[in-house]
Amino acid sequence: MNPDHHSSLNPSSSLKSRFTKTFLRSLIKINKQRPFPYCPREIFQRCHRVKTAADKSLARAAGSRRVWSRAMLCKIRNRSLRRGCQQRPSVRRIIIGYQTTKKGYCLQKKMSDDQEVGTDQASKLRKLVPGGEAMDLCSLLDEAAHYIKCLNTQVQVMRRIADIHSS
Amino acid sequence: MEKEKLFLNEGANSTAAVPIWNPCSFGMEMQSNKLNCCSDQLPNCFFNPNWDSSMDQSDPFASALSSIVSSPVTTSNAIPSSGGVGDPVMIRELIGRLGNICNSGETSYINNNSSTNTSCYSTPLNSPPKLNISIMDSQIMGNLPILGNGIPDHPSLAPFLADPGFAERAARYSCFGSRNLASNESELSHRLMPRLEPGKLQRVSSNPSEKATGPQANVNVDGNSNSDKKFSRLSRSSTPENAEFGDSRDESSVSEQIPGGKLSMKGLNDSNSRKRKAITKGKAKETPSSSLSASDSKVVAEMDESKAKRSKSKEINGDEKDSTKVNEEENSNQKQNKDNSKPPEPLKDYIHVRARRGQATDSHSLAERVRREKISERMKFLQDLVPGCNKVTGKAVMLDEIINYVQSLQRQVEFLSMKLATVNPRMDISMEALLSKDPLSFPYGYRSQQGIALPNGMFSNGETQFSTNPLNAVLKRNQCMQLPALDGFGDAPRQVSTFWEDDLQSVVQMGFGQNQLQQPQAFHADSNMPGAQMKVEL
């Protein structure tokens, strides 16, 4: 997306501003595309779309240097592809395969050795952080820290938007 | 005492200070080159703690030294009395430092006055002590002015300076010092003079020509007392400490060669590991390291085993800090001059890890230690990110908190997206206004995470079972379900439910207030909403 490209060149733009711009744009698009939902199913669909848009814009704002942002974008793309082309499972497999090999199978071996801090906790964290399955504990903590930071930003911005619209 | 004062006084002159603390190599070279001065006597007087006996033997040398010192001496008679008192102490300090510089082979020389130990002096020229010498140069240069202030004129040292070979060596050692000074000065100075503050030294050295006896005397006495204390330990434990130092240095160098063999000077922020790294680096640079490592490999292997056993038995007990301290207590005689409270600072790159004293030096333990340090560093960072984790200690609890926090944040995002999904499309105008304005500096704290979590949970559960009255049904079902999950946040369920109702009200109002939806009556009836405009207190 253009705004992300420009913002990546501009060092003064923060994660917050990048995320806000992208998210607002996608919100406007969502609101324009569909009629306002009156039934719960539509509300649910819309909510899901908004959430996807929020995650996508957050991942884009975070940049592709982070494993979790890449993993999140891959997941979203997979989901949309899965929905879009269910007649072509090969495409999905290719994408999923790329996702797993990208993380490195060699790390899987390390994972089994490095479970010194509590297997269940580390595995829980892996499930929470996107792309956390194929990371060793060290980088998992690293990614988790950055992910928490970005989640905080996301929540702040969304809250603010919601408040503005609710007032 | 003349000889002491000779050398002490030379410290006043920085250029002349170089050879003073380098008597081991210099003296040996003098012997080999058969200089004019009484070189045979010179090492004796330097390294023999028994000043009196050496002084008796080397009267001609004393006169030679006095001749040398006379020229550079500027403040010769600054503190005759205090200098006389403090000189033996300072000299002992010098001896200790020089003993440190010269390797284990020289400890025997220190105890013997025989001139047959010249061979042991050949090593410092080619071995890491050279680096030590250069590094200690700065410290001794700093120290010498202290000593030099109490020295009367000693012209006998003039021949030292006149020696052209000496000038060469001085240049060489000074360049060594300058090269390694910046990065290693702090560590070595800290290690070898734990009680002496460099600030003190520099304060004194900055005024080498100060003639005031009072303040200088005080400073000298303080420095001397500190150095004396430390140095007494040095002299007592010089033999085992030097032996240990040499061996451990070798073993750690070999162990470092095992993982990568790469030595580099960047990232030298670890107080303990980098000390050895610098020394070994110098060793690798200037020494035919193959010969040394080959000869010491056996010793290293033994030391590795013994240390590995010791450290492994200790490391099982728990924290590596604890094991470090336990091992240090074990090797107390070897660690008298080291800082016992080495903070395990995390290294930036595992390649640069050096074995700490008394710890296992095999590559696996090293890598493990580095990994653990990395993880603890990251846990600390996460502690700052996650609110309310300051009191928490321990990885398990910390991880639990982190997991809870991430879950709550994700739930908040879901809830907010649901909220935004029900936003009136009429507000697109305000959205575009928002885009242009970009108002993002709102101080929204993480105060009411529990307030959000409940409706989030509600919605997430409700998504799966959406019926005609989804919110209603979920409301009833989840009124109590999510409350236990919020215990971790330490808030009363009462408050949570109040928040929850407020949020619900706001959502409903947002979604229904401006659009006439068919369902609001049902909601109103069930959730007991007052008609007042309530803003969500987030």
TrEMBL record, chain A:
User: Which Pfam family is an annotated match for this chain, by its short name?
Assistant: IBH1_N
UniProt keyword list: Nucleus, Transcription, Transcription regulation
Listed PANTHER family: TRANSCRIPTION FACTOR IBH1 (PTHR33124:SF40), TRANSCRIPTION FACTOR IBH1-LIKE 1 (PTHR33124)
Where in the cell is the protein located?
Answer: Nucleus
Q: Does the keyword Acetylation apply?
A: no
Q: Could you tell me which InterPro entries the record lists for this protein?
A: HLH_DNA-bd_sf, IBH1-like, IBH1_N
Name by which UniProt lists this protein = IBH1-like N-terminal domain-containing protein
Q: Which residues form the IBH1-like N-terminal domain?
A: 13-79
UniProtKB/TrEMBL annotation, chain B:
What keywords are annotated for this sequence in UniProt?
Answer: Nucleus, Transcription, Transcription regulation
Q: Which PROSITE patterns match?
A: BHLH
UniProt protein name: BHLH domain-containing protein
Subcellular locations according to the entry: Nucleus
Of the GO CC terms on this record, one is: nucleus
Q: Where is this region: Disordered?
A: 201-347
Instruction: List each copy of the BHLH domain by range.
Output: 359-409
Main localization of the protein described in the UniProt heading: nucleus
Q: Which PANTHER family match?
A: STEROL REGULATORY ELEMENT-BINDING PROTEIN (PTHR12565), TRANSCRIPTION FACTOR BHLH62-RELATED (PTHR12565:SF444)
Provide the coiled-coil residue spans: none
Q: Where is the composition biased (Polar residues)?
A: 203-226
Task: Enumerate the SMART domains for this protein.
Answer: HLH (SM00353)
Q: Does the keyword Metal-binding apply?
A: no
**What GO MF annotations does this protein's record show?**
DNA-binding transcription factor activity; protein dimerization activity
Cite the record's Basic and acidic residues compositional bias ranges: 299-328, 336-347
| Pfam families per UniProt | HLH
> CDD domains of this UniProt entry?
bHLH_AtBPE_like
